[in-house]
Amino acid sequence: MHSTKLRRKVAPANGVLDNSADKQDQLLLSAAICNGEDLGPFVRKAFASGKPETLLHNLRQFARSKESEIEEVCKAHYQDFILAVDDLRSLLSDVDLLKSALSDSNSKLQSVAGPLLTVLDSYIEAQTVSRNVNLALTLIMSCIKLMELCSRANHHLSSGNFYMALKCVDVIESELLDKTPSSALKRMLEKKIPEIRSHIERKVSKEFGDWLVEIRVVSRNLGQLAIGQASAARQREEDLRIKQRQAEEQSRLSLRDCVYALQEEDDDDGLNVGIGDDVKDGHSNGTGLLGFDLTPLYRAYHVHQTLGLEDRFKQYYFENRKLQLTSDFQVSSMTPFLESHQTFFAQIAGFFIVEDRILRTGGGLISRMDVENLWETAVSKMCSVLEDQFSRMQTANHLLLIKDYVSLLGVTLRRYGYPVDALLDVLSKHRDKYHELLLSDCRKQIAEALAADKFEQMLMKKEYEYSMNVLSFQIQTSDIIPAFPYVAPFSSTVPDCCRIVRSFIEDSVSFMSYGGQLDFFDVVKKYLDRLLSEVLDEALLKLINTSVHGVSQAMQVAANMAVMEHACDFFFRHAAQLSGIPLRMAERCRRQFPLNKARDAAEEMLSGLLKQKADGFMTLIENVNWMADEPIQSGNEYVNEVIIYLETLVSTAQQILPVRVLKRVLQDVLFHISETIVGTLFGDSVKRFNVNAIMGIDVDIRLLESFADNLASSFSEGDTNQLGAALAEIRQLINLLLSNHPENFLNPVIRERSYNTLDYRKVVTISEKLRDPSDRLFGTFGSRGARQNPKKKSLDALIKRLKDVS
């Protein structure tokens, strides 16, 4: 498209184009030449068609057409050329005038410049002298500077400032030595500079060696101080928790008298004060607490950096510190680990506190990777030492002491960024062994406490004794402080066992605390259950089965068990509080009374002894006249004796036994009395009896029921009804024998309502023994034709039906 536009631009406009091919070729050729295009295609086409003459003709014709244009251009520029020639001719005359003027000026200049050249020569000579003088001054100043630096280096050497001395030597060597004009001075410096460096290296190496010896003692003291501060912080936390628990307890008891106090927070980071906190140029001078001085170390490091021996010093430092740590791992076989464990762990703690400081302020003296490798080695060794020592220990208190110190070590070093999970895992691994040892210790203590029990009510003469033995375990029966001297319903065994259990809880929580496990209440509760159900319960069972021989002793043990129920509630609340668990959650996961075996055994023992006493009085039932002519109005002798004993028993038991325990025991005794009377009527000792005898037994039962009713002021209505229900069997039997229609026993509805405790076999046997007062020996022969008693007839029918059923 571009070439087409150009053709249109230069296309001739001198007539109408011929349609012939030659004319077209000529126009194309003319356009190509005007546009400066390549004529190769036209030449190839002419020779290809065999008509080169046509091409030559066209070229000649184009040349002729351009000659006229050339002539016109020449004519246009000829006049300008003539004018230019005229200007050149006038310029030649001006040039000649300028040449003569320049010649005159040169002559004048030569005459004037002669004196100036003489002055210039003098100036150049003076300048050369000045340059020489300046050079001499420069060399003198260089020597002076060199001597000043030498003097300064000597001063630094004499004052022990080796780093600055090396800096002076480096400046002398790098900047002034090669420029020194004095060869003698230069030779002297070249000899002395290496000697100075060697001297400085020896001095700082000696100082570093002394520092390595000193830092071991400092590390031990530093570790003890750091762990001591962690212990103090932990104690403050414990004190705060105690106050919080007291506040919660006051809130639980709805006490309005609250005490508020301002808590003053101590600086927990006090250990860092003075331990190399002065930092200059990125490095700490380390002067501070307990002589913890890193200056010799950093001086040696700077000097070796200046000497170009940085890597060698780093390796030397790391190897020496590694050897020191390895020596710290040695556990003396001559000293018990319980006595040396604090020194052992404090030494390691101080070592890594120092390394942490050097890592952060040493300017790359030791890398984080190197510190981590040292820590991994230390953790592995400490874990193996703990495993070995724990496996040998047979005392729970010793294991707890070491565990507490190791946990403090973990708290201390965790503040510096060291991972301590592996150490805490070792402590958790020996949790079961610790509690087994603790259970064994408590078993011995409980056995000793129970062996010392005299089965007597505890006498407290002072309020502090009441607070120590009652309030501290929340086993008081009233919030009102009693008058003193105060006789408690329990014996000395109860507070002694409570103290043992409370100590167990506190030791268990102490072991589980700060061991990496936040929620450990379930673990403490599990071992507390074991202590109560396996240790204390079994010990009490053994005491009951082997040492209780009288009613008073059995009653005291039963009273103790009732108090222990309240104490067990306190134990679980105390464990929850120490474990940081809300009381409502602890109440939610409470289980049944863990001492139920001992409680049931104590009540069974008391009931058994009371039954034996009652059996002694019940032997008087042999004196009952079973064929009495008239019913007894005031009760038989045996029941009067039993009631007198029971009333005496109740008056004594009410002072120490809870109502529910006394109710269960009395209910058991009354039920036994009922069974005894029924057994007597059912047994072979009674061959026959009449209605008068049964009416006398009815009076006896009424007396017993009256005794139960008289206890209504001490018991609830439900408890009183349960006491009466204990006599249900003998009452229903007497009612049946005195009934006018005993055959109603065969009615299922009436039997379920009125005779549900009776066994029909016993009813048959006892009913057969009932005789009518009119019955006499051989009475059936004389009264065969007489009218039979309807009640007797009904009873006989009942007996016959029951025999048929059986």
TrEMBL record:
| Family annotation (InterPro entries) | EXOC6/Sec15, EXOC6/Sec15_C, EXOC6/Sec15_C_dom1, EXOC6_Sec15_N, EXOC6PINT-1/Sec15/Tip20_C_dom2
Keywords in UniProt for this one? Exocytosis, Transport
Give TM regions.
none
Extract the Gene3D superfamilies matched here: Dsl1p vesicle tethering complex, Tip20p subunit, domain D, Exocyst complex subunit Sec15 C-terminal domain, N-terminal subdomain
Domain of life of the organism in this record?
Eukaryota
Start and end residues of each Exocyst complex component EXOC6/Sec15 N-terminal domain: 58-227
**One Pfam family linked to the record:** EXOC6_Sec15_N
Coiled-coil positions are none
Where does the Exocyst complex subunit EXOC6/Sec15 C-terminal domain start and stop, copy by copy?
Answer: 423-769
Q: Which family does it belong to?
A: Belongs to the SEC15 family.
What this chain does, per the entry, is described as:
Component of the exocyst complex involved in the docking of exocytic vesicles with fusion sites on the plasma membrane.
Protein name as annotated: Exocyst complex component
| Species annotation | Hevea brasiliensis
Phylogenetic classification of the source organism:
Eukaryota, Viridiplantae, Streptophyta, Embryophyta, Tracheophyta
